[in-house]
Here is the input.
Amino acid sequence: MRVAVIGANGQLGCDVCNAFSDSGCEVIPLNHDILDIADFVSAEKNLEHTKADVVVNTAAMHNVDACEREPAKAFAVNGIGARNLAILSNKLDFVLFHISTDYVFDGTKRTPYIETDCPRPLNVYGNTKLAGEYFVQTLARKHFVLRVSGLYGTNPCRAKGGSNFVNLMLKLAKERDEVRVVDDEVLTPTLTEDIAKQLVSMREMKEYGLYHATAQGSCSWYRFAFQIFKLSGAKVKLSVAGPNEFPMKVPRPKYSVLENAGLKALNLDIMPPWEDGLRRYLQKIGELRN
Here is the structure.
């Protein structure tokens, strides 16, 4: 099987390439500087040459603040870019895996969202990603849309300056006596390596459609930080940040936990608990102490 990975040099893309390669597939990496999904001609030219059976799209404009400042650019990438790939999936006859986000929800439900829940994005990023979902679902005959949450991994995140929440907490623990983190935002931290393995497990599926794919369980950012410090043995005081201590420029959902209901119904959910992913990540970067 030939698998083309768009955004192959990104945080998730790198792990997707490795996972498919380890499974015996021939992987064609398409980095951000090679293929611009917002440019139909560029996308068609590069994908036609791959002769891919499967195309995994991890490319997106996902800096939430930047999307709010440049909505037209965000829609060009997250919306029109997805439309371009959906059209090309039919023309070139490949299965399209399109990565979406928990930010399509407003966070008012307070219990895990399933695939059939009605989306209601709070910001430009969420709206443009939802537009991309609709383009893929209505245009591509063979598609999987996967919503993910709270990604972190060993590869640099380009939109976050090469860092992630875990690395930031470890850095702050070494620089400060006290670290303050919000406790009123709940999510599911998910290791990119685990999402990549879930994608590989779905490569022969014919049950096309929308799926949630996150680690099991949930926590607040404060609880996530607590577990990071506990497992790494960091000697730092962790406190709950006060209301409006870290004001957000752009509204975000206070609760964005996803339930992998679709995958579980097919007995195909292989995502581990979020605590297990964190432990393996800390071990991999040499920070696991406990």
